[in-house]
Design goal:
Length: 147
C-alpha cells in the first residue's frame, strides 16, 4: 500500500485521511496534532478541496490548533516560503483561509460556529469591515495581518 505524499520530494503524510460522507458530500476526516489538540481530535474538509490543495502542493503534513477561543485549524510549523500570494512567509497558515482563498482584507466565518468543520458550505468569506459588524461575545480585536 502506498503512503500518500505531498510531492515526490515531500515527506510522507503521517496519517491516512479517512473518507467519510457528511450531508451527502464526500469529505475527509483529518487528525490534529500539537499541544492544543486533544487526543483523537479531528477536522473535516471536502474531499475535492483537500485533493485540490494537495495537487497545488500547498498542504503541510500535519495540522494543529492556533488562535484564540476554540482555535482554528492551522499548520503545525511556520512555512519558510509563502505559498499564497499576499501572505507573509514564516507564519502559520489557517486551513479555512487556504480552502476559501480569502484575501488579507477578508474574514472567514463558520456558519455552524464549528471551526473544525472546514467544508466549503460551512465557510463564509466577508470583507473585514462587514466582519466587524458581526455579533461576538467578546467583540472584535484590532485587525492583524491575516495568515
Amino acid at each position: 500500500m502506498l503512503t500518500p505524499t505531498l510531492t515526490a520530494t515531500a515527506h510522507p503524510l503521517p496519517f491516512m485521511p479517512v473518507r467519510i460522507v457528511v450531508e451527502g458530500e464526500n469529505c475527509y476526516k483529518i487528525p490534529l496534532t500539537g499541544r492544543r489538540a486533544q487526543e483523537g481530535e479531528t477536522f473535516i474538509i471536502d474531499a475535492e478541496t483537500w485533493d485540490d490543495l494537495r495537487a497545488r502542493n500547498v498542504l503541510p503534513a500535519t495540522w494543529t490548533i492556533k488562535g484564540g477561543g476554540r482555535g482554528y485549524v492551522a499548520t503545525t510549523s511556520k512555512l519558510s516560503v509563502s505559498t499564497d500570494t499576499g501572505l507573509q512567509p514564516n507564519t502559520p497558515r489557517y486551513l479555512a483561509r487556504m480552502a476559501t482563498g480569502a484575501r488579507d482584507d477578508q474574514v472567514v466565518l463558520f456558519r455552524n460556529h464549528n471551526p473544525r468543520d472546514l467544508r466549503l458550505q460551512n465557510l463564509h468569506v466577508v470583507d473585514w469591515n462587514e466582519g466587524l459588524d458581526m455579533p461576538s461575545k467578546r467583540g472584535w480585536k484590532k485587525r492583524n495581518k491575516a495568515n
